[in-house]
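Researcher: Good morning. I'm working through a list of sequences from a screen, and I'd like to move beyond sequence-only analysis. For each chain I'm collecting a predicted structure so we can compare shapes side by side. This is the next one on the list. No need for commentary yet; just the structure.
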Amino acid sequence: MHSLDAIIRKLAGRRFLVIGRVGMDLCPTPAGTATQAATDMIVAMGGSSANIAAGLVKMGCEAALVTCVSDDAVGWYCLNQLDHYGVDRTMVRRITGEYRTSLAVYESRVEDHQSVIYRNNAADFQMGLEDVEQIDYSAFDAVIAAGTVFAAEPSRSAAFRAFELARAAGLPVIFDVDYRPYSWPSAEIAADVLSRAGDLSDIIVGNDEEFGFMAGGIDKGLAKARSLARTKAAIVVYKMGPKGAITLTGDTQIPTGIFKVDALKPTGAGDSFMAGFLGALAANQPLKDAILRGSACASIVVAKPGCAPAMPDTQALEAFLASHPGATAV
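Model: Good morning. Structure tokens for this chain:
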């Protein structure tokens, strides 16, 4: 396990390798429109890992994505979008056959919100050992993976191998639990695999339900996060939605609130939080300030349509912080 100081020093290089999916998002327009009533939709890049990578670039960092996409119009769209956001996609492999790039249809509304995710024969699950073993890990300063990458083979074994190679190269491993039940064969397998991934990680970010899931009950989630902070990870961020977050380092707890906004949708907050949080750590912001900047990024995204398009750059984040009341008290 890296020490907190060692992680901060390493992140200062600002070069992130992000493992996981990129996809296409469709959203009915105008905002508030239900999918079943839609006549027009906007299209944008999606996928947790791709969103995090795009957000990091907006924060002034470098980010490269490793995954697979289908060699078709949807996959090509995703490749073009990665280029648009300045994400290095030289390690994104095109594959043929019946595998397809993920597609998400979600609504820009909070009440009765509907998100429909198409991940049958998902192309990103075909990432294999060869994809991660050919990477020069010395070209990066940290590795990030979202939990979905562990949900199926061969992607699961490839992601564990990437963690192993990253640790051997001295890179901090950053894990967003990101539990999506529809991607997993069973809850029991998910709990076991996600717990093993957490044990290999230096920074772990998840919400109360995700930590509770790994611990066997939501009432046990905070104790699970505390245990990981004492024995495995240098930083554990335990998110509680509108109640803010508790960040744990060893036996130290840092409670933080949220920035209140009129939410347009519930999606994209976690990806934007991760990008803002890591971007701030890489810029040598104090840990509490980094958490608050991540929270501000999350609030910005839920108040706008889209995920990657809604993520702020550094200038937009600074303007939000300057014009918005401080985070809620905890």
